[in-house]
Fold this protein.
Amino acid sequence: MKSGYTDQYNTRNKMYVATDCIVFGFDEDGLKLLLFKRKVKPDEGKWSLIGSFVELEEDVDDAARRVLKEITGLEDVFFEQSYTYGKAERDPGYRCISIAQFALIRINDHDRELVKNYGASWHNIESVPQLVLDHDRMVRDAFQKLRDRARRRPIGFELLPEKFTIPQLQQLYEAIYQRKLDSRNFRKKVISLKVLEKLEEKDKTSSKRGAYLYKFDHDNYLKLQESGINFEI
Amino acid sequence: MKSGYTDQYNTRNKMYVATDCIVFGFDEDGLKLLLFKRKVKPDEGKWSLIGSFVELEEDVDDAARRVLKEITGLEDVFFEQSYTYGKAERDPGYRCISIAQFALIRINDHDRELVKNYGASWHNIESVPQLVLDHDRMVRDAFQKLRDRARRRPIGFELLPEKFTIPQLQQLYEAIYQRKLDSRNFRKKVISLKVLEKLEEKDKTSSKRGAYLYKFDHDNYLKLQESGINFEI
DNA sequence: TCAAAAGTGTTACAAATACACCCATGT
DNA sequence: ACATGGGTGTATTTGTAACACTTTTGA
C-alpha cells in the first residue's frame, strides 16, 4: 500500500466497474470516432475513450446512456455491448473492469458545443491517435464488431440522416469495410433488401445531376435487424 | 438497509463482479449443459449456473478458469465471453455484475466424481430446468452465441474426442442448430474445409458396417478459426 | 462542351440445396 | 435375408463477382 494511504483511499483495494464508449459517428466526410483529451492526472493530455464508473445503483447500460447524453447531448442513442475487459492489471490506478460499448450516431445530430467543452473531438477512423490504457484494443475490437455486425444486420439507420442517397449509404459501408465497393452490385443488393423507400426529391449537394433521396422503411428495417442478413459485398 | 446490518455487511453497498459459466458438453447422447444445485440460501435447492465472484487481484478470465477447474477438474478449457449482465437489480442479494462466459468441453474428459460432489449435473440442452436469477437468459444468449459461432468458425475440436466419425460431427451440429441436416451435403461441406484427416480405423459402436474415424488437422483447424468460414448448412 | 457523379444490365462462376440409391455387416 | 446406419453423385437454383457505358447538369 502506498504510504500515507489508508485502506479507505487505496483505489486498488476495491472493485470498480466502468463503462467505456466507442462512439462511431458518420457525416459527409466519413466514419469517425469520438475521443476526448484527459484533463486530469494520470495521463493528462492523452487521448482516451469517453467513459465513466458505473454507479452503485445504476444499470451498466444506463451508465453508457448517461455518458453519451453528457457529452453529445443525445438521448436514445443506439449502442451495443462490445466486450468486457477484466484483466487485474489493465488499469494501474484502479482495480477496474470495463464494459466496452459501441455507439452509433449521426454526427450532425449531436451538440457541438457540448463536445467541445468536454475536450472531446472527432477523429477520422483512419487516423486514430494512440490512446490510454487498453483503449487502443477496445477500438480495434469494437471496429471489428461493427464490421461483423454490418455484415449480418443493416446499420445505416443509426448513422445516416433520415433522408440519404444510395451513394451516401455506399460511402458508409466503404468506410466500415475499409474498401471500395462496386456501385452496381451495391445498389442491386441494397434494393433487393426492400428496406429502402425511394423519394421524389434529389440531393444535389454532391453532384450536378443530383441523386435520389431514400429513407428507410422502418418496419422492414426492424424485421431485417431481427432476422439477419448476409451483407457480404 | 436491513436492520442489524452495518455498512460493512451490507452487500448492496459495494460493487461485486462475478463470472458465470455456461458449460456446454457433448457426448454420445448429445449436447448438454452443466448446472449445479445451490446448497445455500437464498434459492437453496434451485438450479444455477456455476460461477464465482472475481477476486480483487484476479483476471476475469482466470476466475472462469478457476471455477471450471474446481468443478470439472479440467484445465485448458476452451471458453469465450458471452455477455455482461449489469442491471442494478439483477441479483437481489448483491450489487453484482456478471460476466457470462461459455465453455465447451468433452463430457467424457471431465471428472465425474468432482462434478457429483459439487452437486452439479449434466442436463440435455432440450430440457434445461428453470434457473435462478437471470441465468435462464444467460443460457439462451450463450446458446445463440454458440450457434452464431458455429456458423462462422469450426467448433468440433473442443467438443469431440480426438477421433470421431463424420456422423458424430453431424450429430453435434444438429444439436447446436437444433435441426436435421442432410448427410450428403454435410459430408461434402466438412470435407471441403480440409480440416479432417481420415484414419484407417473404423468405429463400430453405432453401426454394423462401422464408420471411418477422423481427426482434426490442428494447423488447418486453427487457420480456419482465425480466418472464419461460412458454415451455413 | 466538359467535368463529375448518378444510374443501369449481362455474363460467368461459385456455392447452397434438393434429392435416392447402394454398401457393408452383425444378427 | 434383412435391418441398420454409412457412404456416394448429380442437377437446379441462388447468389456473388466482374465488368463499361450512358445520363444529367452546373460551371
